[in-house]
Amino acid sequence: xxxxxxxxxxxxxxxxxxxxxxxxxxxxxxxxxxxxxxxxxxxxxxxxxxxxxxxxxxxxxxxxxxxxxxxxxxxxxxxxxxxxxxxxxxxxxxxxxxxxxxxxxxxxxxxxxxxxxxxxxxxxxxxxxxxxxxxxxxxxxxxxxxxxxxxxxxxxxxxxxxxxxxxxxxxxxxxxxxxxxxxxxxxxxxxxxxxx
Length: 196
Ligand SMILES: N[C@@H](CCC(=O)N[C@@H](CS)C(=O)NCC(=O)O)C(=O)O
Fold this sequence. Notes:
Layout lengths: L7 H6 L7 E4 L4 E4 L1 H12 L7 H31 L5 H21 L13 H15 L12 H11 L2 H6 L8 H12 L8
Antiparallel strand pairs: 1-2
The protein binds glutathione (GSH).
The site of glutathione has 13 residues, from helix 3.
């Protein structure tokens, strides 16, 4: 997040100037937006997505909830609570409450099913995992009481124990939580002058 996202080369790949961007050289195809990237990869590989159209639609429902709900609201919570040092407690509180509300919606959703789309691990679980993780490992997590969210916590442990997830958490390199958090704050505030 050193500003590379605003260079002409990167802007050509994603006019929205945000990561992630996927370049599939094999298909000569470039795509941005994490949800669209996950969907593209699942379609391409035939993995991590139900084939049944109704189950797939339910999976998309959850993927959209992550993209439009938990991700943006959690991002804003980090901006108001951490980056701007809780300068306006009422604003921070709005995002804190909404993140908590969404986490308890997710908890209810997982009651009686192991994964967000039912009994199989899909891209919806992959999309939610880093944000739910944030509620556990980062300083902002202290503002979110996840203790009573039994189903969500069990899901979190289940996903975190997957060998591929553990491997993924070390990319690009293993970092202590404080360093990860700093990088995350600069990523969510990353619009430079717009936020100054
Ligand atoms: N809706 C987008 C959000 C992407 C996004 O906000 N990326 C952040 C990093 S988490 C970013 O590139 N920040 C840098 C900036 O805004 O300049 C997605 O899901 O891919």
